[in-house]
Automatic annotation (TrEMBL), chains A, B:
Transmembrane residue ranges: none
InterPro entries given in the database record: dsRBD_dom (IPR014720), RNase_III (IPR011907), RNase_III_dom (IPR000999), RNase_III_sf (IPR036389)
Gene from which the chain derives: rnc
Reactions that this protein is recorded to catalyse: Endonucleolytic cleavage to 5'-phosphomonoester
Official protein name in the record: Ribonuclease 3
Annotated organism of origin: Coralloluteibacterium thermophilum
CDD domains: DSRM_RNAse_III_family, RIBOc
Domain RNase III residue range list: 1-123
Binding site for Mg(2+): E36, D109, E112
């Protein structure tokens, strides 16, 4: 018996796990949403540990920000593309036609599902080794304490530091069906009076977008003010 | 050499890890915030896997809601109390005086830190076994598909199901210092016109509180409309 091909840095004993991980809910058969749930938790844990061990003096806030940057959808989609995951995806005809195999959210979700598939196939240590292999170059690029705070945090801190009221975020609209929603958000400042709109694939993403717009207008510098590590 | 006492269901080879896990940031010495970061990720992963294995047909949404209920601060604080964790905590004099060893947030954070300490002391399998021991009775009590959706989700679904505008949440005020903040939130409905206030130790908790108030006024039934498993 041949050992079979490796996929994503792992040789699957049970290929059906890999198959399920690469099946979008739009396709026939068992899809990857349950695996994505488990894979997301595994990914968060493995990256948390990597940062914990690599940055022995970083505080919780610095590690939280670094992890958010490493596991965000755009980063995962980039990794998935570097592994040509899109070409291996099973999608329904509608998603095929609309280019679903190139969409960030579908790629990121499938990569998380692959993580769970490896875990179920070979256990925690094997899964961690594979995931660390993917992320190590990205972790190595991060400089402790230099991970930028997100736009909402920076906007809030800038306002608080000046004794000004907090920004008010309002969900204006959410369009599209459950799996392809676009959120439209407004952010209002009372002092200085200003308002900006943002949109994104989650309410949070839309809020970040609006906050970033206001930060740019307020000319808030991007460098973090203190390094934790 | 004696094997030493077990604490929290685990016999620590390196007692300094346990000591750090039980040291609040207000006390002298190495405190538990970094461990809490890692422990939170471990807890989320271990509970995710437990739900994934126990509920083979539950969808991602049902598992996400069940996990949120299991790992929320009040649940963790309850577990911590059942282990008499508060009495073992090292706190600074200010926190001692103000009853910090009874506070939900401090107890929950310390319990998460203990999870990380066990992981670092003895590895993933040992950590998982201990954590599952704590949570199994709670997991067993949950009925698949019967985990209630949170108030914000139910309010949103109720409004969407009737073609009405989404609720608008506004942060009115955040009082107190970083580690003991209280958030005040307002939730406005356009149709029917109504408004409610909520407060909580996080913005999200305050929003849930306001949404729950509106749900009660709208007389929305509490039973979930569909079971996933």
């Amino acid at each position: 018996m041949s050992e079979g091909p490796t996929a994503f840095g792992h040789r699957f004993a049970d290929r059906s796990l890999l198959e399920q991980a690469l099946t979008h809910r739009s396709a026939a058969g068992r899809h990857n949403e349950r695996l994505e749930f488990l894979g997301d938790a595994l990914l968060n844990m493995i990256v948390a540990e990597a940062l914990f061990l690599r940055w022995p003096k970083a505080d919780e806030g610095a590690m939280t920000r670094a992890r958010a940057q490493l596991v965000r959808e755009a980063t995962l989609a980039g990794l998935a593309r570097s592994m040509d995951l899109g070409a291996k995806l099973a999608l329904g005809p509608g998603e095929m036609k609309s280019g679903g195999h190139r969409r960030d959210s579908i790629l990121a979700d499938a990569l998380e599902a692959v993580i769970a598939a490896i875990y179920l196939d070979a256990g925690f240590d094997a899964c961690r080794a594979v995931v660390l292999g993917w992320f190590e170059p990205l972790v190595a690029e991060l400089v402790v304490g230099k991970v930028e705070k997100d736009a909402k945090t920076r906007l809030q801190e800038w306002l608080q530091g000046r004794g000004k009221p907090l920004p008010v975020y309002t969900l204006v609209e959410a369009r599209g069906d459950e799996h392809d929603k676009v959120f439209f958000v407004r952010c209002d400042l009372a002092d200085p009076v200003d308002t900006a709109s943002g949109q994104g694939s989650s309410r949070r993403a839309a809020e970040q977008c609006a906050a970033a717009e206001l930060l740019a207008r307020l000319d808030v510098p991007r460098a973090p003010r203190r390094g934790p590590g």
